[in-house]
Amino acid sequence: MLLLYLQPAAARADAVGVPSVDYLWTQAADKQLYKAAEWLALLHYHDESFGGPESYVDDKAFFLAADGGDDAAAELRATLNLFVNTPETRCRFPARYNWLSRQLDFSKLKISKAECPEYEDWRNALNASSIVLVFAASYVNSPSSMYGHTFLRFDPPDIDQSSPLLSYALNFGANVTGSEAGLLYAWRGIAGGYPGHFSSGTYIEKTKKYSRLENRDLWEYRLALTPAEVDQMLAHVWELNEISFDYYFFDENCSFRLLELIEVARPDLDITSGFDAWAIPLDTVRVVEKAGLIDDVYYRPSNQSVVTYNIGLLNKSQQMLALTLSQDIQVLHEAEFLELGESDQAQVAYTAYKFLRYEYNEDERDPGIAERSYKLLTFLASRKLRPPEQRVPPTPISPLDGHATMMASAGAGVEDDKWYSDIELRLSYHDLLDNLAGFPRDTSLNMGRFILRYRENDGLQLQRLDILEITSVPPRDHFYKPLSWQTSLGFDRQWTNGDDELTFQGNGGVGLSYKTVFDGRIVTMLRGRAEYNDGFNDGKVDVAAGGSIAYLRQGVVGNTMLLAETLHFVGGTDRQLLEIRQNFVLTRNNAIRLHFKRSIDESSGINEAGLYYRVYF
Amino acid sequence: MKKFFVAIALSALSTSAFAGAAGGPGCGWGQMLFEGQTGTATHVLGLTTNGSTGNNTFGVTSGTNGCSSSGTITYDGKEMVKVGAVMDEFSEDVASGDGEVLTAVAVTLGVKQEDRAYFKETMHNNYSEIFTTQNVTQEEVLANMWEVLGNDSRLSQYI
Fold first, then answer.
1. What's the mean pLDDT when you consider all of chain B?
2. First and final CA of chain B: distance in angstroms?
């Protein structure tokens, strides 16, 4: 293939000294530029297990050569051809030009940088000299958002004098058009049914979306890239204008594409190759951190985090006063409010205002609420508030400092008076008892959890396989009234008519969580379950209804859960469960867990107790 | 409607009025203070796609009607933050006398570093002139702001 291009008598140049394509190509081929990391990064090449290297870009418009998607040399030659013969179109490829012009002698080409006004205007308007990788954490009561999201922000050189809100933000996401049914929409996101594009906006729009609409904390990680590296990344971003990639939720997602851009900026990095099967946004940021690319961290709390923090600055009676003030503006004139000192009045009114705005954030504009908001705001304008930096929560532990997202565990125990040993592998992510630092409280999200059990006399068996498990138990208080919910799908084992049966099950629950002693939660839920089980008396499929009550305590040194649950199946089977689980944090990525469980199947109880060592990796 | 004409008149006083007075719905000229925020209903299902409301082309030039694809507006020849889209944040910053959106507005107006504190203080002191009622719209807020800044000898250079 390659030899075809190597014409022996390549003319060096035409009459006016413009080098010929053949001449440039011979130089490029001599230097093997088509194999250079810089070139392969610009083409988004990666090694496929079958069929050799190919590009992630699925859009023909990105390539100049017909087979540019899997022949980097052909694409290089086609690019040189473009630069020599149709210089006016080369403005689409400023990054290719930047790099090639440093490798080959382009001085005689009839093109200069200034001839790409559209690109230059865009580049000058961005005025970017540094890049911030932004991680959007989960939103409350939506554990499925816990994997997070990432996008980039481009800051000007004088950012200290300017405002990051005015910076340019770049996002990679699927393009969803039309009004498709919700579940299909989610499924196509997973299965790759949508084209993905880079899109741009200002950071002020992003902060509105994440901080205010979705109430997600943002973590801003400034990247240690040189201005030249930033320049090359932006030049390449321009090449991706309106270029589409297939979007896959698990691997070729928002975060993976950003790693590719970082590799364009610094081609000797290899930060993409660890993400062949899936790319959890948090993990992609950790890879960037590990490569030494994070210079600086800034925490931007969500609106809800700010509201919660300000509530916490008040004592109990002031909190109730703030709540009633948010509902009734007359409180401003009542003795209980007027008796407070000036700064307390300001803080109570500020909290009331913030909560009121938070509470009706998503609702249609209401004249009564607008009037109350305006009166509160006008009151605040007449008072001296705490300075802005004291009205936001201090920076919590960074998500980067939490435990690793995969986990393996080994342990042993006794079940029904027989010894067993378990090994467990969990592909992702975090459960209610896992080491809490860096992760949101009251939240569990697990995908791909396998437990194999070896028992005396019984050999090896599948003990459990969770395809998906989500739990959210945010507590209710005077201000917030969230519902708790839980769902899971997978295989587990249940004692049924005296036998230990493997079942396939889906279950869900909804309920209420309240704060209780030792900063714990008491959670009650109504539960439903559908189950396939060979051991049922009639048929193999049955559904059950029931309830559960749990105590959960999450802390720095360890987490505790006490659970009682009862289920009644339509076919008559009754099942009760009592469980105590305890996790002890050893280090960030090591923990010990123990549990005691009593399962009651038709009035005969079976006890199980086990001790496990867990390693996050 | 009367308020609308007052706003037009006020802004016409300063100079050429704003090109986008009758601008497209995306410009938010009629956006009121304390507007509700919609569009979160499908957020849970949207998680797998991480789609964005951003623009799929990277252009940064202003569109027609003084309303740019990159979230800014042009008022009276000045390109600035589309305050209508962040009116809650902006009004809170003016009421409290400081904050990021107020800083961003100062930056887009070209307020020099040494005048920023004074700019914020002036905005704060004139909170009730700028946010005159709970129904004030983006265009009224800007007209009021222009009036306040125009009457200030140190800040009038910025409008």
1. 73
2. 26
- Distance, in Å, from the CA atom of A588 to the CA atom of B55, rounded to the nearest integer, reads 40
pLDDT for A209 equals 85
With cut-offs at 50, 70 and 90, classify the pLDDT of residue B51: low
A150 vs A20: which has the higher pLDDT: A150
10 Å CB burial of residue A29 (0-12, 13-18, 19+) is middle
> Does A455 fall in a domain?
yes
Domain count, chain A: 4
Q: For residues A296 and A352, state if they share a domain.
A: no
Q: Are A545 and A516 in contact (CB under 8 A)?
A: no
Same domain? A216 vs A310: no
For an interface test with A, which of B27, B31, B49 has the most A Cβ atoms less than 10 Å from its Cβ? B49
pLDDT tens-digit map of A231-259: 999 999 999 988 888 887 777 788 899 99
**Whether residues A289 and A193 fall in one domain:** yes
Domain membership flag for residue A44: yes
- What's the N-to-C CA distance of chain A in angstroms? 44
Q: Is B116 on the interface with A (CB under 8 A)?
A: no
Question: Could you give the residue ranges of the DSSP H alpha helices within chain B?
Answer: 2-14, 87-96, 100-108, 113-125, 127-130, 138-150
| Chain B: residue whose CA lies nearest to A391 | B99
Q: What is the DSSP letter of A365?
A: P
Which of B40, B42, B103 minimises the CB distance to A182? Answer: B42
pLDDT digits (tens, 9 = 90+) for A330-386: 999 999 999 999 999 999 999 999 999 999 988 888 999 999 999 999 999 999 999
Rounded to the nearest angstrom, the minimum Cα separation between A167 and chain B is 10
Grouping H, G, I as helix, E, B as strand and the rest as coil, residue A169 is strand
Could you tell me the residue ranges of all domains in chain B? 76-159
Residue A124 or residue B23, greater confidence? A124
Contact (CB<8Å) A357/B88: yes
Residue A397 in domain:
no
ipTM of this predicted structure: 0.87
Best residue of B32, B42, B43, B50 to probe chain A, by most A CBs closer than 10 Å: B50
Omega cis (within 30) before A429: yes
Contact: B86, A142; criterion CB under 8 Å: no
Provide the pLDDT for residue A248.
79
Q: Which of residues 1-30 of B touch A (CB under 8 A)?
A: none
* Token representation of residue A158: 């004088």
